[in-house]
Amino acid sequence: xxxxxxxxxxxxxAILLGERSWRDFLAEIERATPGGxxxxxxxxxxxxxxxxxxxxPEQAIADYGGYYALRNPWMERAMRxxxxxxxxxxxxxxxxxxxxTEFHDGFLRPLKLDTAAGLLLDMxxxxxxxxTVMAPLDRSALIESWSQSFNRISGHLQRAISWxxxxxxxxxxxxxxxxxxxxxxxxxxxxxxxxRMLPVSPAAQFxxxxxxxxxxxxxxxxxxxxxxxxxxxxxxxxxxxxxRKLAEFRTVQATITLVRINRDELSELLLGPCVMxxxxxxxxxxxxxxxxxxxxxxxxxxxxxxxxxxxxxxxFNLRQIAEAAGLSHETVRTQQKALLVKTGVNSQTQLLNLxxxxxxxxxxxx
Length: 366
What we know:
Blueprint lengths: L3 H13 L5 H10 L5 E8 L4 E5 L4 H9 L6 H8 L6 E2 H4 L2 H4 L3 H10 L3 E10 L2 E9 L4 H27 L9 H8 L3 E5 L16 H4 L2 E3 L5 E3 L2 H10 L9 E5 L4 E7 L3 H7 L2 E7 L7 H12 L3 H11 L4 H8 L3 H15 L4 H8 L6 H4 L1
Antiparallel strand pairs: 1-2, 1-5, 3-4, 4-5, 6-11, 7-8, 9-10, 10-11
Helix pairs in contact: 1-2, 1-8, 13-14, 14-16, 15-16
């Protein structure tokens, strides 16, 4: 029969293969800890937190992130400890001392918890990520045992952390920016919490028109030229659970779409939120030939229909276009009719509005 440690190690690798989840891992710990609560959590240096859990009350999470994170004596002592090895919380902070803290009265007591075992998994940048199991005081012996087990499986947990840091934690979604950038003349990038592009979409693919709307510092941090869009990007990259999931801005340089996307749970916990930034410069900065080619690709126009469109954009009438091409007026007129049908407009004026990026039906829109 497998020991609890063997089952946890099996779960770690099943999670990396996409067969199980970190909530299954935590549930295994909780099954062996009556009255206990297990969690993976990230705590910021200035407060705030993010949890992976099964049944921690949401109000308790909000209270911890908003107030008790900076008043948790266990974390304070663990961060100062010379070793990252797990140690039962009642050894870090004697129970008599814990009873005199706000953390115990306001956070632990309502949850009927008094002690814990924790393992510091990652401490980089502005916070720390920890695996913890909290339990009532009468489970102190079990907490001692968990502390030893966490130390024995820590190497496997560190491999999971390294895997998350090497990849973007986005799975197949990581391929999307490069595909869209190449095929649709869009600037598509995925930004991490530090505003740097994740390694999924080389910046060299972006056109000059995209870079008019986007700025990048010498250190790689991305900013948006439009202040309102840039403020929204900052909000969406924060760990604020109430941050917007989707926003769109029509700026002078481009249409900018921001989408807050989910990674796998551990990557989200370790690395924070990420946002897909889609920059569509539209017709901004295009010359007449580029506008013609853009419409031609969008509506699958033939070369002859594209030639008619190009002539109309340059201000020629059908007779002039026919003479330049050595064709009859009727032939060019037939090509123009096909052009109108394919682009879904009813007149030459509507066609030109469409080609210049305006509404083909301005009166109806007004």
